[in-house]
Amino acid sequence: MGATWYPSPPPTSNNGSLTILHFHGGGYVIGSTRTDAVYIGNILSTQVGTRALIPDYRLSSNPLGHFPAALQDAVSSYVYLLDTCKIPASQIIVSGDSAGGHLAISLLRYISETEELLPSPRAALLWSPPVDIVGMSSYLTQSSASKPSSSGLHINAKTDYLDDTFLSWSVSAFSDGGNVDIKDQYLTQLGSPFKTGAKIWLHIGGLERLAKEGLEWAEEMKGEGNQVEVFVEKLANHDIVYLGNITGFEKEAEKAAKAAGQYVR
């Protein structure tokens, strides 16, 4: 598996600085750490920690890349930081935007279920994660006339750039065309809260299609005794920390990254 360090690999000896393990967005079907993740890699390394490692996890648009391939690669990346780079878990920040945020949540769940093997990271930064794959699939398969108006995908459909065609491709590829049960707690996070040793910082765009379910998931996680802080940029659309330089939310993305950096410190 390839990966890219921003701005450079860590020193050979531990200097006590924070290291970010970030998973890029792209619906699990697109994205590259060397091109698409340059903007977010630079923001995270300058505003949150001293460096960020962004892995090229397997995409579900490729053969044998459907679930749980990306999760396996996420676990490998985390173990690489712990064992090969000798970075203590207390200095690791797990982060992810959009689908990468979903992947970061899955990694936290896996770590919580294998506490005897893997220590929890210091914190998790989640940027616009999709947490309700079942709800998304149900919404996308209905006709336009029957789509429920209560769905977050419907409420902010006119104020976000995410469209049904891309979301349908993402869900189908990730679940291997329906061969993977999307009701599994690793796929649909909403309704399956868990206790994690990492404190959570969640960023939501107030006008994005994933806002409603993301906020509901945050409340569920708080109910499990987790430390969760929610940062809502009221007028932003989806995943501004990844595409803010393209969608016109560069100042807001930098402000959010600074707030995330203060939180983890």
Short description:
The chain has nine helices and seven strands, in the order E-E-H-E-H-E-H-E-H-H-H-E-H-E-H-H.
Q: What would you say this structure looks like, in words?
A:
Helices cover 38% and strands 14% of the residues. It is an alpha/beta fold and 265 residues long. The chain has a single domain (3-264), classed as 3-Layer(aba) Sandwich (Rossmann fold), CATH 3.40.50. A 7-stranded mixed β-sheet has the order 1-3-2-4-5-6-7, with helices on both faces. α3 links the parallel β4 (92-97) and β5 (123-127).
Features:
globular; alpha/beta; 9 helices; 7 strands; 38% helix; Rossmann fold; single chain; 265 residues
Topology:
Blueprint: E1 3-6, E2 19-23, H1 38-47, E3 51-55, H2 69-84, E4 92-97, H3 99-113, E5 123-127, H4 133-141, H5 152-155, H6 164-174, E6 199-205, H7 211-223, E7 228-233, H8 240-247, H9 250-264
Parallel strand pairs: 2-3, 2-4, 4-5, 5-6, 6-7
Antiparallel strand pairs: 1-3
Quick one: CATH superfamily?
Alpha/Beta hydrolase fold, catalytic domain
State the helicity in percent bands.
25-40%
Structural class of the secondary elements?
alpha/beta
| Average residue pLDDT | 95
The helix/strand series, from N terminus to C terminus, equals EEHEHEHEHHHEHEHH
* Spatial order of the strands forming the largest sheet: 1-3-2-4-5-6-7
Looking at CATH, which topology would you report?
Rossmann fold
Number of domains: 1
